[in-house]
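pinned: reference chain
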Amino acid sequence: MDEKCSGRQEAGFMWYVIQVSGGQEEGTARLMQKRIPRDILTECFIPRKERKKKFKGIWRQVEEILFPGYVFAVTEAPGELFLRLKAVERMTKLLREETFFYPLSSEEEEMIQGIGDKRHVTRISRIVVGPEAGRDREVVILDGPLKNQEGRIVRYNLHKREVTVRIPFMGNDVELRLGIEMVGERGRKAGS
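pinned: its structure tokens
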């Protein structure tokens, strides 16, 4: 995928999301990049997230699709892009109506850009938790994409090493599960 991070830095460029069949994101994005000229499709990408998953008792870092069922496109010619998408075989059935082709608001675009890197990957945030036991432990974000986003956090699942955040997406609030890494507990001395 293209590593250029476009967005609204250049006048006229907007982000659009295209709804696709689940599991078809990568293939559809490759097909779009192959069939649609770069002067119409500036960038095509699938936002991803890093997280830790346990396999046979061992935690491993994996990448997953952040918004399953969607491909993101950057263009300053949405009408032409829509017409070109109709010519892509996989898209023909989906694009009967414009409801499968959504422009993101500047707030939505900025939020997604803010949690992702230049490759559109949301990295794992590092946290520390308070020493008290129970459900309401104090959690502090040390660094990562969740830094300064604490107000968007709906819940923590320290056991699964993830947090649920609420962000704007396509005119609604959606909840995303993002990866965290606990690097310590507040009030505990190192080595204890």
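why pinned: The helical segments are 25-35, 78-86, 89-92, 106-115. The longest strand covers residues 172-185.
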